[in-house]
Each structure stands twice: as C-alpha cells, then as structure tokens.
Design a protein that fits this description.
The complex is a heterotrimer.
Chain A (H helix, E strand, L loop, with lengths): L3 E10 L2 E11 L4 E5 L6 H8 L9 E9 L2 E2 L7 H7 E4 L10 H11 L5 H14 L3 H4 L12 H14 L4 E5 L7 H14 L4 E5 L3 H7 L2 E6 L2 E7 H6 L4 H7 L5
Parallel strand pairs in A: 3-8, 3-9, 6-7, 7-8
Antiparallel strand pairs in A: 1-2, 1-4, 4-5, 9-10
Chain B lengths: L1 H39 L2 H5 L2 E2 L4 E2 L2 H32 L4 H15 L2 H15 L6 H25 L3 H9 L4 H8 L1 H21 L27 H10 L8 H33 L2
Helix pairs in contact in B: 1-11, 3-6, 3-9, 4-6, 5-6, 6-9, 7-8, 9-11, 10-11
Chain C lengths: L1 H36 L8 H6 L3 E2 L7 E2 L2 H32 L2 H16 L2 H20 L7 H25 L3 H9 L4 H30 L2 H6 L17 H8 L8 H35 L1
Antiparallel strand pairs in C: 1-2
Helix pairs in contact in C: 1-11, 3-6, 3-8, 4-6, 5-6, 6-8, 7-8, 8-11, 10-11
C-alpha cells in the first residue's frame, strides 16, 4: 500500500488561516477529486502534497503528510525527492520555451540522466502515454509554445510522467481548455490511474463526477466530507455538501 | 470655448517645442562632432601611435586603453552585479534587509563619479596596493557600474514568467537548477542589454579614472593589469584643456571625440538591437 | 543527498554575499571618506572650513581651507542648470507621454537614451568650443568659461534623468483619472494641467531631485567650462569652481597624508552627504506617491 496520509495539516498565509487541521488518507491508484467553492483552499491543499506552498513567502505549514513511509515535511526529507515522486500539472499549461523534446527531457536531465538513448526512449514513451506522440512525432524539435492549449497541457503531463512519479497532482488542469481538449485530458486521467495515484482539484463538479473514484468536499479550509464519488454526489451525508452540489452556493 | 481651444493649442505647441529643443541639443552634439571629427579620421588616426608631442599621429593606445579598462570593468561588475540581481529576484524575502539593499543600490547609483574616484584612490591604488593601473581604474569603474547592472538585470529576471520556475521546481529541480536552466537563459538578452548600456557609460567616464591609472602618455600599450594606460575620454580632456598647443590639436580632439562617441553609440545600438529582437521574440 | 543540500546552501550564501555587496560598498565609501576627511580638522577649524571663502591649500605661510566659495559655486550651477532643465525636461516628458503618437514616442525614446549615453567629457569639449564662444559673443565677454556655460552643460547632462523619470511618473497616473476628466467635458490641455500633472507631481519632484543629484555630482563638464577660479563668485558671468572640480584638479598633485590630502576627502564627504540627501529626498517623495496610489 502506498497511500498518502494527511495528519493534522494546517496552513496559513501570514495571518490568514487557509487549511484547518485536515486528516485524511488518500488511496493509491485511484482518482481523487477535491471540490469546493473558489477560495476554499483546495489548490492550497494540493500544493501542500508536493511542498509547492513553500514558494509562497509567508506560508506556515503544520502537521504531517506521510508518503512512501516518510513524512514529507520532516526536516531530513529532501524536497526535490518529494517532488520527483509527486509530480504536478498546473492550471495554465506552462510549457517551457524549449522544444517539445527538451520539455519532456528537462526533468530527466536535471536528475542527472545523461544517456542519450535512454532520454530519447523515455521522451517518446511519455509522449505516447499522453497520446501526444502521434500528433507531434515529426516536429519534436519545434517549440512547445506553438502547440495548442490542450496539447500543451498534455505535454506538461508527459513532462511530469517522464521522471516516473508515483502521484500526479492536477490543479484545475482543464480550466483553460476547450471541451474537446478537456475530454482528451479526462480520458488520459482514467488511463493513468492504473499506474499512478491521481489527485485533481476542480471547480467543475461534472468533471469530478465523471472521472473520480473518490471525492472530497472542502469548505473554508475544512474537509467537510470525503468518500466514494457516486455516494457523495447522490447521497451526501452533510447538509453543506448537499447545498454545494445542488448549486445553492459557490 | 474659443479661448480654451486657443489655450490648448498654445500649450501643446510649447510642449512640442521643448521636445524639439532636446532633439536639437542632441542633433547639435552629434552633427558638430561628426562634421568636424570626420576630417581628422583616417586609417592612420585609429591605427597609429601619437607623434610629436601629441600634435600628430593617431590615438591607437587610447582606444586600446579604453577597451582594456572596460574589459576589467566587465569582468568585475557583471559576475557580482548579476549575482546580486539573482539574489534579489530569486532568493531574497521581502523584509528589512532587502529594503536596505535596494535603498543602498539606488543611493550608490547617485554617488558622484568623482567620489568613486576618491574611493578608488584610497582603496585600490593605495589600500590594496594596485597602484595607478588599469586594474585600479577598471575596478573603480566596476563599482560605478554595479548599481546599474544590478537594477537592469533584476528587471530582466523579473520578466521571466513565474510558471517557468514553478514548473521546474515541481519536477524536482533544486532552486539553483531551476534558475540556471530555466530562468537565466530567458533573462539573458535583457541582462545583456542592460549590461552593455551600463558598460558604455563606464567607457566614457573620466572622473573615476583620473587618479586611478590613466595618464596622458605612455609609450606602448599596457602589458599587464598593473600598467598605467591611456584612454579616449582622458585624452580628449587633455587635448581640449591642458595641451600646450590647444588650437593646433583641435582637430585631433574632434577626432578623438568622434571615435569615442562612435564606440559608445555602437554599444548602445547593439543593446537597443538586442532589446528589439527580444521584444519580438517574447512579444513583451 | 546531503551533498546536494549543502551545495544549494552554499550557492544561496554566495548570492547573498553578492546581494549585500551594495550595502558594503556604500558603507565602505562613506567610512573611507569620513576616515580620511575627518583628519582635516586636526589642523583646520570646522568653522573656518565651512565659512571661510578662501581655499588656498598651497599657500606657503598660512594655507587656508574654506569651502564656502565652492559651495556657493556648486549651488549656482545647480540652480542655473535646473532653471533650464526642469521646464525643458518636464515639457518633453509630457510631450512624449501625452501628446506624441506611438511612432513619435518610439523615435524619441532612443534619442533620449543616446543623449544620456554621451560622455560628459564630450559635452565639456563642446562647451569649450561651441557654447563658450557663443556666450562670449552674445554677452560681449572676453571668454565664455563661466557659470552660465556650466549651467547650460549641466542642464544637458541632467535632462535625460529628468525626462525619463517624469515620464514614468506621468505614465503611472491611472487612466481612470483622465477619463473622468474628459467625461466632465474638460479638454486635453485642462486635463493635463488640472488632473494628470497634479497626480504625477511627486514623481516629477523626484525626477527634479535626481536631476539635481546628477548636476551636483557632475565633474568633467564643470571642470572644463567654468574657468575654475577658486574665489567667491559674484555673478553668473564669473568664473567659478565647484566641489567636484576642486577634487579633480587637486587630487592629482597632492602629497599623500597631508592636510591638503585630507581636506580633499573632506570635500568629498560633504559632496557624498549632499548627494545622499538629494537621493533620500527623492526616495521619500517617491515612497509617498506610491502609498497615495494604493
């Protein structure tokens, strides 16, 4: 078992409390969706899982997140190793202004891989996994910024996959995309869960219902309800959840 | 209503005139230097040593001296300046210390160049014992250029989107790896533009080198960084104020001014060209 | 893994050192000036230093070290240059931002940058051969090497600073102010005078201060065109000698470690403190306008 165990996690930006004592185990090789109204802290929660919140100057984090038998917040834990194991895809596609090939190879190179054949092999495999290889095969060395938005986002997923993480965090990955590209990414997520744990933050409840196995509802920094997606959307236990999914607020 | 319209026309005309005057000032400078200076320019003028107590011959050693001292300035100010900019843009947290650093940079930029000269004399020439030399002058000019390089480099670093850093860190890169491979390369044209502009100003400075290493005449070119040197700005100063035959060397002074301005304008146009290319590339 | 973290920490530390270099240099300059300058007062009374008009360090019997004449000279050329450069600079900045079309702007901006790049020694040279004779001719003087010439050249030197900083200040005025004024039926000129310039005034004041700093610290141009007579000037047509020029003229020939040597550093200290004050005022004014805006 390689679940992510969140223990008593609290987060504050300066004086502002963003997450309040979150306790939850997230199962491996499933898609877990985190939903909630904007500003509820769902992206912040996601960014705690690979320690990206540390980039915000006055962020204070308390509690533990256990993954792969270690507390990722332990002072002996190397943050770069955490991020290699727990990859991330951002809200807006953020390809680097390099070639398609170099984008995917980037993670391998910074991790010290020098063998050219191996890099090539991994780049192609990762692109293939994301269904991008057949689309870009003959222009691997052109700039990634020329791709369409949906292709760019899949490239970013391929870039994350190339370094063989165990978890992939997705922060509203489709919010900047058109419906057709969104569909492709959702398909991809379902395919990925056979090998990876996928955690997705979304403001789109239909998307959560379509793709996820488990859903958590976050409200004002508290995890109100967490459980099987189908159950949560049809028979929510909490009044707040029910109000939210029936569109009474948010 | 008519009156208001009239007022507006008069006002805008005055504004237009001030812009025209500024252009005329620049125009006068450039045209004057070019029209009189070009008579002095010949292959001999830029490739030969001065002769007959500076009344004949060329200015080769002053050109080489200016280039030599500017190279030392570059070697000193770029590594430190760019590093300081990286610190401010990538590492520093907003706080008291960072505010003090920024205030220090702004104030350094306002320190008179002759004061840098005094500092150079006390520290490099005497304190560190580099003597009156290319090295002392280059370092003094380096200090003078530093605030400029820091400010322009930081600006260039700030234009690199935040997502490049985030994306790289999320792949498990260390901070330095991210900066080196995913921030610096994209800030480089901007850093280059700012640095060239800063160095072009250093190349034309006289006051800081006045007592730190420049001399009116040395036979031959400097062999080492501890030698004294000749430089175009100082040469022009002497030819126009101190020379025993001022009228006789006027055309040499014009020629020196033209070569100096040409060098500086070439550096400026290179910088403007890089910026233009950059703007096209990033659509900024 | 430990090694990787150690490497990162070392790199961070090196960048930190570069970062604080600016503070170290500024403090270094100040303490060096003060350390040397203060020794002047072993032999010279502070009162004499500031209030005597006679600067004659090489007098055989009684050398005297009064800086009042050079202070007055310095203030004269600053005043003269600002009388010319402030209206011209602000007028040009307003023209570039509010009147000129984008094409004209694109042409004008590099022009200003090139003007900023012209070495002071070249401008000084033209002061001698072009501005000097012009002044001598117009005012019927024996030569044109005086405070007027210095003022004109310093105005040229400080114009780029005044223009570019005023320009930034005017550009920073929110578009809404302008639109609100137009909506009330004001024309462009009224809007400019009543709305835009008042809104940008602190930035413009900062620009003037920084221009003043430029004129205060400029050495070569004043050295070349003001005649350098170390006496109390009585009019703008007198030959003057500023603080910067005094340092430039005398540092080269003064023996190391003498009172004269230290006195030059004392002049440098005063110059440094003056330029620091000008900068700090500019900064305070800018800080005020930033807080007003947000």
């Amino acid at each position: 078992m390689n679940n992510i165990i969140i223990k008593d996690l609290s987060l504050a930006y300066g004086e502002k409390q963003v997450l309040k004592r979150i306790n939850q185990e997230i199962e491996e090789k499933k898609i877990t969706a985190i939903i909630g109204p904007s500003g509820c802290g769902k992206s912040s929660l996601l960014r705690c899982i690979n320690r990206m919140n540390e980039l915000i100057p006055d962020a204070k984090i308390m509690g533990q997140i256990i993954f792969d038998k270690i507390d990722i917040y332990d002072s002996n834990t190397d943050v770069t190793e955490v991020r290699q194991k727990i990859g991330m895809v951002f809200q807006r596609p953020n390809p680097f202004p390099k070639s398609i090939y170099e984008n995917v190879a980037y993670g391998l190179r910074i991790n010290g891989l020098k063998d050219k054949n191996k890099i090539s092999e991994t780049v192609e495999r990762s692109l293939d996994d994301c269904g991008l290889l057949k689309e870009v095969k003959d222009r691997l060395h052109t700039s990634a910024t020329e791709l369409s938005g949906g292709q760019q986002q899949r490239l970013c997923i391929a870039r994350a996959l190339a370094i063989e993480p165990k978890v992939i965090l997705m922060d509203e990955p489709c919010s900047a995309l058109d419906p057709a590209s969104t569909f492709k990414i959702e398909e991809l997520m379902v395919k990925l869960k056979t090998r990876y744990t996928v955690i997705i933050v979304t403001h789109n409840m239909q998307q959560a219902a379509r793709v996820s196995d488990t859903t958590g509802f976050l409200y004002l920094g508290e995890l109100i309800e967490f459980g099987n997606t189908k159950k949560l959307f049809t028979k929510p236990k909490e009044k707040l959840t029910e109000d939210y999914i029936s569109g009474n607020f948010g | 209503m008519k009156l208001k319209r009239f007022e507006e026309i008069i006002g805008f005309t005055i504004l237009g005139f001030s812009a025209i005057i500024v252009i005329l000032i620049l125009g006068t400078i450039i045209v004057n230097i070019i029209s009189y200076g070009s008579n002095a320019i010949s292959w001999e003028f830029i490739s030969d040593f001065p002769k007959d107590g500076m009344t004949k011959g060329g200015i080769l050693p002053t050109i080489m001296g200016t280039i030599f001292v500017t190279i030392i300035t570059t070697l000193f100010s770029i590594p430190i300046g760019v590093s300081a900019a990286i610190y401010l843009s990538e590492y520093a947290k907003e706080g008291m210390l960072t505010r003090i650093i920024r205030a220090a940079i702004r104030n350094l930029a306002g320190v008179p160049s002759i004061v840098y000269g005094l500092f150079g004399v006390a520290i490099f020439v005497q304190g560190l014992g580099f003597g009156s030399s290319v090295l002392s002058s280059g370092l003094t000019l380096g200090l003078l250029t530093l605030p400029w390089i820091i400010a322009t480099s930081e600006e260039a670093l700030k234009t690199v989107p935040h997502s490049y850093r985030e994306g790289s860190l999320a792949l498990g890169a260390t901070k330095w790896q991210s900066i080196r491979s995913n921030v610096l390369p994209y800030a480089l044209p901007g850093i280059l533009t700012g640095s060239i502009l800063g160095l072009s100003r250093a190349a034309g400075e006289t006051a800081p080198i006045l007592f730190t290493g420049v001399v009116f005449f040395v036979p031959g070119l400097p062999d080492s960084v501890f030698d004294q040197f000749m430089a175009m700005p100082y040469h022009l100063y002497i030819l126009s104020t101190q020379h025993h035959a001022i009228e006789q060397v006027r055309s040499l002074a014009y020629g020196t001014a033209l070569v100096l301005i040409t060098l500086i304008l070439i550096m400026n146009f290179t910088a403007i060209f890089i910026r233009f290319k950059l703007r096209k590339k990033f659509q900024m | 893994m430990k090694l990787k973290r150690f490497k990162e920490k070392t790199i961070h530390f090196l960048f930190f050192l570069a970062g604080i270099s600016a503070i170290i240099i500024l403090l270094g300059i100040f303490s060096m000036l003060l350390f040397n300058g203060i020794k002047t007062f072993k032999d010279v009374s502070i009162l004499n230093f500031f209030f005597s008009t006679v600067w004659n360090p090489s007098a055989y019997h009684e050398p005297s070290y009064g800086i009042l004449s050079m202070l007055v000279s310095t203030f004269m050329v600053i005043l003269g240059s600002m009388v010319i450069a402030v209206p011209l600079g602000i007028g040009t900045a307003v023209y570039i931002t509010e009147v000129a079309g984008t094409r004209t702007q694109e042409i004008l901006k590099p022009f200003i940058e090139i003007l900023a790049a012209i070495p002071s020694v070249v401008i000084g040279f033209l002061g001698i051969i072009f501005v000097g004779p012009l002044i001598a001719g117009i005012f019927n003087l024996s030569n044109g090497l005086n405070a007027v010439n210095g003022s004109i050249l310093l105005a040229v030197m400080s114009l780029p600073t005044i223009i570019s900083i005023s320009e930034d200040a005017i550009r920073a005025v929110p578009k809404e102010y302008k639109e609100a004024s137009y909506a009330l039926g004001a024309n462009r000129w009224t809007t400019l005078i009543r709305v835009i310039i008042p809104a940008a005034i602190s930035g413009i004041v900062a620009a003037i201060m920084l221009g003043t700093g430029r004129a205060l610290g400029e050495t070569m141009t004043v050295l070349m065109v003001t005649g350098n007579a170390p006496a109390m000037p009585h009019s703008f047509f007198d030959s003057i000698r500023t603080m910067t020029a005094t340092i430039a003229i005398e540092l080269g020939e003064v023996p190391y470690g003498t009172t004269h040597y230290y006195a030059i550093f004392a002049v440098g200290t005063i110059l440094f403190l003056m330029s620091l004050s000008v900068n700090i005022i500019a900064e305070l004014v800018t800080a005020k306008y930033r807080t007003q805006r947000t």
